[in-house]
Specification:
It is a single chain. By secondary structure, the protein is mainly α. The chain folds into 2 domains: 2-153, Orthogonal Bundle (Ribonuclease iii, N-terminal Endonuclease Domain, Chain A); 163-226, Double Stranded RNA Binding Domain (2-Layer Sandwich). It is built from 11 helices and 3 strands, in the order ααααααααααβββα. It has helices at residues 2-9, 16-22, 26-31, 43-64, 70-81, 83-92, 103-107, 114-132, 134-153, 161-173, 212-226, and strands at 178-185, 192-199, 202-209. The protein has a 3-stranded antiparallel beta sheet, with helices on one face. A hairpin with a 2-residue loop joins strand 2 (192-199) and strand 3 (202-209). The radius of gyration is 22 Å and the shape is elongated. The N and C termini lie far apart (52 Å). The mean pLDDT is 84.
């Protein structure tokens, strides 16, 4: 397992127990306590890795996109660290091949589940942080985040339309989109909102939705699709 992980990722651990823990699912520990060698499952490292990932992603977005609002930064961060994205990172690194699972979990094809792969990715990141520090953790994760951000802005990922539109307008014109609520209708239990997105005084799109956030997303999507403002 150690040699396989190092060959795939190029990372050699100083404390190999951390790597063993990061790749040990709780099902394996429960099924084979005699083979766990006193190493805990990866749940605690997953918890730590989630916090490390949030910090590194937030700091990178903050530095790379100085004109993004807090809302836009949060939207981009959500796009970058969603479960399906982290699972894809894990697949690119072939972490699924390294996970230690019980036979019962293997029979349910857990090795390919998004949630499990995302958890293992976070656990590995937490282990790298403990073993080699924040700079090594940053070097491990930033190339993945940078590539994913390019996919988001190119419309190739499960992107947040507001984030993509803001990136387009800032990179091309140096301005940010403005959203305004045009109309609210319907009974209290079934409200419908209409939101318009503007570049200065120019209307780029108008969307409707069951919430202001949903309507703004639809307005941004239409603006990107129509692209008459280019």
């Amino acid at each position: 397992m150690k040699n396989q992980f190092s060959a795939i990722t190029g990372i050699a651990f100083h404390n190999e127990r951390l790597l063993h823990a990061a790749l040990m699912h709780r099902s394996f520990k429960q099924a084979h306590p005699e083979r766990a060698e006193g190493v805990p499952s990866n749940e605690r490292l997953e918890f730590l890795g989630d916090a490390v990932l949030t910090f590194l992603t937030t700091a990178w977005i903050y530095g790379q996109f100085p004109d993004f609002s807090a809302g836009a930064m949060n939207s981009l961060r959500v796009s970058l660290v969603r479960t399906t994205t982290l699972a894809r990172f894990a697949r690119e690194l072939r972490l699924g091949e390294c996970i230690r699972l019980s036979r019962a979990e293997e029979s349910r094809e857990a090795r390919n589940r998004d949630a499990l792969l995302a958890d293992v990715f976070e656990a590995v990141l937490g282990a790298i942080y403990l073993d080699q520090g924040i700079d090594a953790a940053r070097s491990f994760v930033l190339p993945l985040l940078e590539a994913e951000a390019r996919r988001v802005f190119a419309g190739q990922a499960e992107a947040d339309y507001r984030t993509r539109l803001q990136h387009q307008l800032q990179s091309r014109y140096g301005v940010v989109p403005v959203y305004r609520t045009v109309e609210e209708s319907g009974p209290p239990h079934r409200r419908l909102f209409t939101v318009e997105v503007l570049r200065g005084e120019q209307s780029l799109g108008m969307g409707t939705g069951a919430s202001k956030q949903a309507a703004a997303q639809e307005a941004a999507r239409l603006a990107l699709d129509q692209a008459e403002w280019e």
